[in-house]
Amino acid sequence: MSIAVTTDIVETARVRHDLWPVATAALGRAMTGAILLAGDFKNHENVSLRIKGDGPLGVVHVDAFSDNTVRGYVDEPHVDVPLKHAGKLDVGAAVGHNGEVQVTRFTQLAQDYTSTSPIQSGEVAEDLAYYLYTSEQVPSTISLGVLVDPDYHTVVAGGFIVQALPDATDEALAMVETNINELGPVTEYLKAYPDGKGLVEKVLDGLTVNEVYNEPISFKCRCSRDRFAGVLMTLREDDKKALLEDETTELVCHYCNEKYHFSREELEDMFAPKGLIQ
Fold first, then answer.
1. Segments of 199-275 assigned E as strands
2. Whether residues 266 and 206 fall in one domain
3. What's 89's domain CATH number?
4. In the predicted structure, residue 278 carries a pLDDT above the cut 50
5. Which residue intervals of 159-224 are DSSP H helices?
6. Residues 36 and 64 in one domain
7. Confidence band (pLDDT; 50, 70, 90) for 167?
8. Looking at the 3D structure of the chain, how many domains does it have?
9. What is the per-residue pLDDT across 118-140, written as a single tens digit (0 to 9) for each?
10. 74 and 8 share a domain?
11. Main-chain phi, psi angles of 115, to 5 degrees
């Protein structure tokens, strides 16, 4: 079993992308899920998750890295859909009920692996559990949640994944299922215990628990000014000339919304032919 408390990560993403509530919930669930999928501390995996539904959010993009960092965005951050019963955010309607979940695993031990499965509900947790069962043949229970205040701030966010080992007994599986049903929504537990303390013991009550890994996680992008400069250098000559018509060129990272500015003088120097050194 693995758990992830992602309140700070989700709030960082909300602020960076100016997310509306249902977009915060969808991206927050996806980032939490990707962190859990990448939580193989032995193989040091990076995981890219794409949820491509037919809802107004467009594609949900998330990358989770083996150093316990994550980044992500949605195509359309300003989406509003009718609330479900009891005033709950309808993530499924925003993501869409038709489409696919695509997961790519990058590991140092084997070739990169990409697999897909159809979206089941658009609620993310059920979709990831179905993906693991059909594409990786791993029976899993996943619970993901994001609670957003009326003022759009992230109150709590997090989740957990429980996977059955090949030698798991029916009695043990039934015990865990009962514990999860009694637990209820993970956000309710995190409201009472914001750091997730005791969650593993609650889900695995009646079983022996041994902690093997406990590390902080954070929102972090891989973008940089140098990387964007490298992209600019790959442009065609006509495109480079078009950029030089403006005083300043602004480039924006999709994943973190960081903005990079290049003055005309900087671009002229970058694009200038470099002579051979005699």
1. 218-219, 248-252, 259-263
2. no
3. 3.55.30.10
4. no
5. 170-183, 186-192, 199-203
6. yes
7. confident
8. 2
9. 999 999 999 999 999 998 888 88
10. yes
11. -145, 155
